[in-house]
């Protein structure tokens, strides 16, 4: 009971508000294997692991995180509309202290995600995936393609950075075009609320998370 109360306390404190969806997804699926594309400082990773620990021993929780860490160049920082993360070892040491099994991949996801898929992903059930790495559409599309290769009927995927604006300032970034292009006969897509709104020089940016699962067909085969 105490752990559940701590979970709800973490949930209501989360800012921006849309990040609460991460804990709801981990809690709801009782996830034991978590993949996060875009680790940054590890704060959300720790929160997800702590939530997963409500239902299982910490040593059974597996977390796989992907980021450029100190390899992030100034050019990529601008191109991907990113924030500069701490060094990989700093993040790793913080996450190892959770007691979970931690594996961090440093580098471009065009290199590290295929490595993960080939060596680990296809042989392991992935419960939850959070896609929040580079913000350029081509980067997100590549990351999603890799996730598809390890996604089972029970895997829950959350995309961040679904920009509801039509302004030129958000063209070419965010997951909107990818999510809007998903085949609704193949995937269930849920626009999550609450969203977050941020004042910008050009207006207000509205940012939402989106939950995607494979559509399950119930009933006897035809």
Offer a few descriptive terms.
single chain; alpha/beta
Characterization of this structure:
This protein is α/β, with parallel strands linked by helices and 222 residues long. The protein has one domain (2-214): Vaccinia Virus protein VP39 (Rossmann fold, 3-Layer(aba) Sandwich), CATH 3.40.50.150. Helix content is 35%, strand content 23%. The chain has 8 helices and 8 strands; from the N terminus they run ααβαβααβαβαβαβββ. Strands 1, 2, 3, 4, 5, 6, 7 and 8 form an 8-stranded mixed beta sheet that branches. Helix 2 (20-29) runs parallel beside helix 3 (43-52) and helix 6 packs parallel to helix 7 (137-150). The mean pLDDT is 89.
Helix and strand element order: HHEHEHHEHEHEHEEE
What is the typical, i.e. mean, pLDDT?
Answer: 89
CATH architecture descriptor name: 3-Layer(aba) Sandwich
- Outline the low-pLDDT stretches: none
Termini separation (Å)?
A: 45 Å
Tell me what portion of residues adopts beta-strand conformation: 15-25%
Q: Please identify the structural class as seen in this structure.
A: alpha/beta
As a whole number of angstroms, the C-alpha radius of gyration is 17 Å
Anisotropy-based shape: globular
Number of helices: 8
The tally of structural domains comes to 1
């Amino acid at each position: 009971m105490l752990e559940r109360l701590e979970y709800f306390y973490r949930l209501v404190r989360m800012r921006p508000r849309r990040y609460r969806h991460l804990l709801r997804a981990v809690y709801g699926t009782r996830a034991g294997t978590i993949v996060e594309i875009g680790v940054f400082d590890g704060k959300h990773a720790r929160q997800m692991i702590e939530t997963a620990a409500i239902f299982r021993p910490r040593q059974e929780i597996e977390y796989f995180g992907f980021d450029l860490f100190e390899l992030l160049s100034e050019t990529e920082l601008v191109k991907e509309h990113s924030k500069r993360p701490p060094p990989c070892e700093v993040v790793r040491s913080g996450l190892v202290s959770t007691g979970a099994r931690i594996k961090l991949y440093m580098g471009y996801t065009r290199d590290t995600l295929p490595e993960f898929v080939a060596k680990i992903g296809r042989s392991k059930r992935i419960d939850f995936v959070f896609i929040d790495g580079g913000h350029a559409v081509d980067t997100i599309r590549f990351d999603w393609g890799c996730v598809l290769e390890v996604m089972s009927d029970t895997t829950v995927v959350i995309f961040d950075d679904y920009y509801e604006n039509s302004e030129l300032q958000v063209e070419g970034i965010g997951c909107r075009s990818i999510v809007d292009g998903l085949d609704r006969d193949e995937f269930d897509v849920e626009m999550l609320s609450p969203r977050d709104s941020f004042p910008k020089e050009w207006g207000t940016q509205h940012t939402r998370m989106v939950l995607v699962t494979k559509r399950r067909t119930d009933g006897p085969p035809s």
